[in-house]
Design brief:
Blueprint lengths: L4 E7 L12 H8 L3 E7 L12 E2 L9 E2 L1 H11 L8 E10 L2 H9 L2 E6 L7 H6 L3 E4 L9 H12 L47 H19 L1 H11 L1
Parallel strand pairs: 1-2, 1-6, 5-6, 5-7
Antiparallel strand pairs: 3-4
Helix pairs in contact: 3-5, 6-7
Bound molecules: S-adenosyl-L-homocysteine.
The site of S-adenosyl-L-homocysteine has 18 residues, from β5.
């Protein structure tokens, strides 16, 4: 196996990759070989003369459905039986993506991502290839590509050598079921608003306590669902 965390993306729009992942943190890491990206055009696995990848839904109704046979051929060409990487289908019906799953993916060898279009995939290929279904959230995108880009962005920043300070991933939102504390920087005063004095006191213990209290307060107010998890985890 060659070096680096490796992502294979199956898509009808390979030109969308690396897209935003070609710049800044992820782009530099890509150039440095910390991760690798292969975008594969699902359409090149179509077999009929119209190169069709979709067809009308069984049972009727609006839209089109991606064909099981074409998607299976594409998956099998890039993701063999011995592939240790998870095979993920981005789908609004999937399990919502969490920082915990992102971290697990970053610790593994890579990922194969399948981007849907139209109304989605024929259910049989999802089952036959034992795909993990992952959702970006409770809203509907026109395709899996933005979800794949977001998932990869979240993973790549955690890969060793990508973020400046190794520790900077650990105190962030969700790492302990808490949202992060608020940040401040120069200028000292902005439109009449100062910086909380404790942050400029030089007392590291006080700063830590203040940040922890703000994190708990914000989580309790904004995300009762996370707050519940935090309380359960702590007890
Ligand atoms: N008819 C489907 C939506 C299809 S949207 C439904 O109601 O569930 C087309 C494609 O966009 C999907 O196949 C999926 O790959 C992608 N997609 C849409 N919303 C998404 C989300 N919230 N998370 C991840 N992928 C999503």
């Amino acid at each position: 196996m060659s070096e680096g965390w490796s992502a294979t993306v199956l898509t009808l729009f390979p030109e969308m990759f690396p897209g935003p992942l070609g710049v800044s943190l992820a782009g530099r890491a890509l150039e440095a070989g910390i991760w690798r990206l292969e975008a594969v055009d699902i359409r090149s696995f179509a077999t009929d003369r119209h190169r069709s990848v979709d067809d009308t839904p069984a049972g009727g109704g609006p839209g089109m459905v991606m064909r099981a046979d074409v998607v299976a051929a594409a998956v099998d060409a890039v993701h063999g039986q011995g592939d240790a990487r998870p095979l993920i289908y981005l789908s609004p019906r999937g399990r919502p993506l969490t920082q915990q799953r992102v971290r697990e993916l970053a610790e593994g060898p890579g990922v194969t991502l399948l981007c849907g279009r139209f109304e989605g995939l024929d259910q049989r290929v999802i089952e036959a290839r034992n795909m993990e279904e992952v959702s970006l959230g409770d809203f509907v995108l026109s395709g899996g590509e933005p979800a794949a880009l977001a998932l990869l962005d979240a993973v790549i920043r955690l890969l060793p050598g990508v973020m400046g300070k190794d520790a900077s991933g650990e105190e962030e939102s969700f790492e302990s079921w808490l949202l992060e504390y608020p940040h401040y920087t120069r200028p000292q005063e902005f439109e009449g608003r100062g910086i909380p004095p404790v942050l400029t006191s030089g007392d590291h213990k006080k700063v830590k306590e203040w940040r922890r209290a703000r994190a708990e307060e914000t989580t309790r107010e904004r995300r009762p669902d996370l707050w519940e998890k935090f309380l359960r985890e702590r007890s």
